[in-house]
Specification:
Oligomer: single chain
Helix content: 55-70%
Low-confidence stretches: none
Structural class: mainly alpha
Protein name: Reverse transcriptase domain-containing protein
Organism: Capitella teleta (Polychaete worm)
Number of strands: 0
Number of helices: 4
Shape: elongated
């Protein structure tokens, strides 16, 4: 990612970076419901665990 940003800046292009902290958003979601939805949408194995 850093290389892409550097290359864009070298070409005189603008770059925008956005950082989002989603921890609090997931703290408000019932984990059982979230895990069920993820599983129904094909998330399995280590990723689901």
């Amino acid at each position: 990612m850093t290389n892409k940003i550097s290359a864009s800046l070298d070409r005189g292009e603008s770059c925008l970076e956005v950082f989002l902290d989603l921890k609090k958003a997931f703290d408000t979601v019932d984990s059982g419901i979230l895990l069920g939805k993820l599983e129904r949408n094909g998330v399995r194995g280590n990723t689901l665990n």
